[in-house]
Amino acid sequence: MTLKVGIVGAAWGGMAHLPAWRAVPGVEVTAICTSREETARAAAQKLGVERAFWDAHAMCRDPDIDIVDLGTRPNFRQPWLETALAHGKHVYNASPHAPGWEGAKAIDAAWQASGAVGVVDAFIEYVPAVRRQIELVHEGYIGTPIGGTCHLNISLFNRASKQFPYNWFARSDAGVSGLRNNGSHALYPLLAMLGPVEEVVADDRQVLSEWVYEDGERVTPETTDTGNALLRFANGPIVQLQAGWAMTMHDGWLLDIYGTHGRLVTRAPTFPSAQDCTLWGLRAQDKPNPHAPTDLSALDIPEAYRVDPDLAIDASFPIPPCFPMALAMQRMVAAIAGKGTAAPDFARALEVERCQEAMSRAQAERRWIALSEVV
Fold first, then answer.
1. Given a cut of 80, is residue 113 above it in pLDDT?
2. Across-strand partners of 92?
3. pLDDT at residue 291 greater than cutoff 90
4. 319-355 pLDDT, tens per residue?
5. CB within 8 A of 19, min separation 6: which ones?
6. What are the GFO/IDH/MocA-like oxidoreductase domain coordinates in residue numbering (predicted)?
7. Which own/partner contact pairs does 51-54 have at CB distance under 8 Å and 24+ positions apart?
C-alpha cells in the first residue's frame, strides 16, 4: 500500500522535505499546504503535487492522507499536530517539537492515545559521520565515556536579510530560541550516543540586541540567541553544550567526545550534512607517546553510510539535508508497517523538551536542575 503524505509549508518543505519523501519507496506526496489559497495552488503546481490546502487543520483531518509533515512555527504546529493525531495520522514534526514544556506534554498525551508513529525532523544522527561516531562510541572505541563538547553555532541574523524565511524567529510567542532550536538538534544525537541526561545547568541570553536588514530597517528581537549548558548524563559523562544562531564567524558543528580509551570528533562548517561533516578519532593504544600533542586521524566512513540501496538518492544529492532526512523517513515508513522502530520518535522528543525545560529553569533559578524535577 502506498502511504500518502501531506506537507505543511512550501518553502523548506518544498525544497528539502519533498525530494526526501520522493526518495522513499512506498510513499507519494499528494498534498501541500500554505496559509493562503493563491500560494497553496501556486506551490502545488510548481512542485507537481496533486492537491493544494490552505487550512492545515483540513489537511490533518483529510481521510486520504496517511502522514502529515508539519513545518513552520512550533506554536502554530501544536494544534495541527493534535488534530492530525486525533484523526489517526502519522506525523513527521519539525524541531523544536513543541512551543514549550506544557505543549510538549499535551502533544505526548495526544500521541500516546493515538497509536500513531511520530518522528521529529532532527536528522543529525543520520548524517554519515555522526551516525558512525555514535556507533563507534557504542562499540567501545573511546572506552567508558567521560565527557566532551558539542557546538551548533550559526550566524542567521548577524547580517539580516528580509528574504530569509525565518525572520519570525524574532517573536517570543513562536516557541523558538537559539538554544531551543540548535540545542534541540544537538540533543537528539547526544541522547542517541550517551543515553538520558540526569541534570543540567545553563545560561541562555541574547547577544544580538537588534537585527539590521539590507535597507537599514532595524528589528528588536524578543528571543534569546545564545545558550551554554552543562549536561550531566545518567551514566556519568558531562558534556558542554553551546548552541545559538548569533555567533560572529560561526564555528558550525562540533561533537568532541572522549573516554577512558580514546576520543572521537565530528566537525562541519555549519549545520552538519552528509557532504561536509567529517569524522576524526584516536585511541590511546595507537598513540606511542601519551605526552605528545594529540593529532587526530581522519576516520573512514563505510560506503554503506552514504548509500542506501532502497532510497532513490544518496549522500551526494545536491540538497545536502535530503539524504539523512530520507533515512529518518524510511525508518518511519518501516515502523508504520510494523517493521522496527522510528527514530527520533516522539518519546525521544519529550525527553529533549524536558531537557529544554530544565535548562530554562536552570537559567531562571541559577542552579543545577535534575530532569526528575521536570514533570
1. yes
2. 69, 119
3. no
4. 999 999 999 999 999 999 999 999 999 999 999 999 9
5. 313, 317, 319, 322
6. 135-264
7. 51/6, 53/6
Angle between helices 178-194 and 346-365 (to 10 degrees): 120
CB 183 within 8 A of CB 227: yes
For cell 548552541, the residue is 243
Q: Nearest-5° angle of CA 152, CA 156, CA 162?
A: 160
Distance CA 27, CA 44 (A): 17
Cβ neighbors of 61 (< 8 A, separation 6 or more) are 83, 87
* Contacts (Cβ under 8 Å, ≥6 apart) of 344: 119, 120, 122, 125, 188, 192, 328, 352
Handedness of CA 142, 327, 313, 316 (dihedral sign): negative
Q: Which residue type occupies 208?
A: L
Q: How many CB atoms lie within 10 A of CB 260?
A: 11
pTM: 0.97
Q: Residue ranges of the alpha helices (H) in the chain?
A: 12, 18-22, 37-47, 56-61, 74-86, 101-114, 128-139, 178-194, 322-336, 346-365
Give pLDDT tens digits for 266-276: 999 999 999 99
Between 346-365 and 101-114, two packed helices, what is the crossing angle to 10 degrees? 160
